[in-house]
Design goal:
6-stranded parallel beta sheet, alpha/beta, binds zinc ion, about 260 residues, 10 helices, single chain, elongated
């Protein structure tokens, strides 16, 4: 288990707190300045947690390392499943293109569909941790509840797949400062993305595709959803309309797909 080291931003935040406390002890009349510093610091911490690709709260994989980028590798990450309707068809589309992906599964859903977990692994894809329940309020949890959400999924997914996940992705990418030490304790790395499709809300395949393909290059981590997928106007899960074209564009650009390393 790696020893947790707070990011420079968290260290600076701790200094602001210590400074405010020291200032109040030295002269209680300085309370407006101390309070102002604390409010500003908490606002900055909150904003950092609301930016999924921010590195301020700790390490965060938003792009593959240089070597993988040079080799032209791209990660397709697929969140919020497994889903009994969508995941099997996603697997068919990936297989047809000879592509491999990383599935950030919700512990509860994986436990409800163990056969899909086996199918994902048998096709050569990997499964990573996307929390046990995928609560919308995940980023407001305290350290105990947040740790349980992640550790329970780690157990669930580890047992179902026979391999403990190495990466964690926060629900909607939203975090708070409690997350980084928990991940360090569980030997997990935070992974977000280079570009996301907003495909839980956007049902227009062309818009979803252009969000993913604009600037497409080696080292990109792309985010799509097999669970909670938005529907096209004629009711099809949007990922199924987008994935074959996306895989063709990746191939035509001379790039290849890989699960998260
Ligand atoms: Zn999600």
């Amino acid at each position: 288990m790696a020893r947790w080291r707070p990011s420079p931003f968290l260290q600076a935040s701790a200094l602001v707190h210590a400074g405010a406390a020291a200032g109040l002890l030295a002269n209680p009349a300085w309370w407006p300045a101390a309070l102002g510093a604390l409010v500003a610091n908490h606002a900055a911490l909150t904003v950092a947690g609301l930016l999924p690709r921010s590195h301020l709260l700790g390490p965060n994989l938003t792009h593959l390392p240089t070597e993988a980028a040079r080799r032209g590798e791209v990660v397709i990450s697929i969140d919020d499943g497994p889903d009994p309707e969508v995941t099997p068809r996603v697997l068919e589309q990936l297989a047809a293109a000879g592509a491999r992906a990383t599935f950030f599964c919700i512990g509860r859903r994986a436990a409800a569909h163990p056969g899909l977990v086996r199918d994902i692994l048998a096709a050569g894809h990997t499964i990573e941790n996307h929390s046990e329940h995928h609560w919308k309020r995940f980023s407001t949890l305290g350290p105990g509840a947040m740790a349980r959400e992640i550790a329970t999924a780690q157990e669930t997914l580890g047992q179902l797949s026979g391999r403990r996940p190495r990466y964690f992705r926060a629900p909607a990418g939203l975090r708070n400062p409690f997350l980084d030490p928990i991940l360090s304790r569980l030997d997990l790395h935070l992974a977000s993305w280079t570009r996301r499709a907003y495909d839980t809300r956007a049902g227009d395949p062309q818009r979803v595709l252009s969000r993913l393909c604009t600037g497409l290059g080696g080292g990109d981590i792309l985010l799509l959803h097999d669970g909670n997928a938005a529907r096209t106007p004629d009711g099809r899960p949007v990922i199924l309309e987008v994935l074959p074209t996306l895989l063709a564009r990746i191939r035509d650009a001379g790039l290849s797909t890989t699960p998260l390393p």
